[in-house]
């Protein structure tokens, strides 16, 4: 109810000649949501600027799309080809793009502070869209901090950025569509994929069947998934289902978390049998979760999703949060994929134009209707996928010696001990154990800490809560801060 009141009041908010505004619409993130939002906003007469840390647009999913070679693009698949088209349309639109700009603070009045080339600057608009996408879910398990272990998404970035694949024998561990996609991409680029060790419990498949009707809303997406599985089977890549008791081992004679060793094997159980595969690299993936660092810093309303096992900022039909003018679109709001991200970005831009009185209510509704229909159809398959690839419970029941916070090397046992000593949430745990105080500011451990505490305390993740995020969102040097000139935009 409070959200609706806030959104209603924001309908009257506009630039109104305010000299403090540099733009009408600021977009943080140049992925599918940010690009589609920027193009829509610009077409409606909003002075728009896009900020992104990368040198070129595309986000993580379409990274380097503008300059990647044809053979590499083909190997990455048809979705990446669509990304090249999106990037091309954005470039042709001539919208202002601040490349290499790292946003490190956003104020309640929507003033954005960013750093570019070692210097900080500020922009401000009455409408701000955060389209920062998702982060890979942490996969705490014995040995996951060993050299030679990385997220599957990181391997995909290397393919997109410089057409490189890891050397040696590779095992992919986890579950989800991205795990299958990366396995196929690696194989196409000549990598030695030894096995896929899937961790989704068998019960997931039976529960997902109840939601199978949603597949008919996105038949092409379902067909792509089947195609990935068929490719892996056709190439003879071993596929181990419902795997448990996974341990990533280092060289013999060393302790599991000794930083002086590399991965040598992955041991696990599947189909009632014990397995041990000799590998040189292990790629982990248990799905992605919304990147809520900015929304957490601005203290907007969030909720815990029991299906996706992640925090979601609460947004209305136009992507607006409980802070008037602040909108979130794409996977940063909820995990629905690139197609849905584009559509939600468009809707957020229409909502911004409505708030700035560039459109009236009837015009906005008419313009949004076809996009809402497409978004609804694209999202029908999501309950099926979320249920099928729900992370296993044992990911939270990792042994006490397993490192959870990689920055400060805090173990799962230490987090559980904090709960037994009376810590009621992640922020108290941070204070007493330094968990979450490293350079990543809880990006890698936040969800794991919340869930481990919730289980140990016998409470829900919603009750336990999440880390409080403060500026700077990422480390900056004093020189960058010292160059900040609030009275002048260097762009």
Average pLDDT over all residues: 90
Oligomerization: single chain
| Proportion of residues in helical segments | 25-40%
Query: DSSP helix count?
Result: 17
Summarize the main sheet.
5 strands, parallel
Strand sequence of the main sheet, in spatial order? 3-2-1-7-20
Poorly predicted sequence stretches spanning 5 or more consecutive residues: 1-16
SS-based class: alpha/beta
Model description:
With 491 residues, the protein is an alpha/beta fold. The chain has helices spanning 2-10, 32-43, 70-76, 78-93, 152-162, 177-188, 202-209, 219-234, 293-297, 338-355, 361-379, 382-388, 412-420, 426-433, 446-457, 461-464, 478-482, and strands at 25-28, 48-51, 96-98, 102-106, 111-116, 119-124, 127-130, 134-136, 149-151, 169-175, 192-198, 239-240, 244-250, 263-270, 273-278, 281-286, 288-290, 302-305, 310-313, 326-328, 403-405, 410-411. The strands form seven sheets. It has a five-stranded parallel sheet with strand order 3-2-1-7-20, with helices on one face. A hairpin with a 2-residue loop joins strand 5 (111-116) and strand 6. The longest helix has 19 residues, at 361-379.
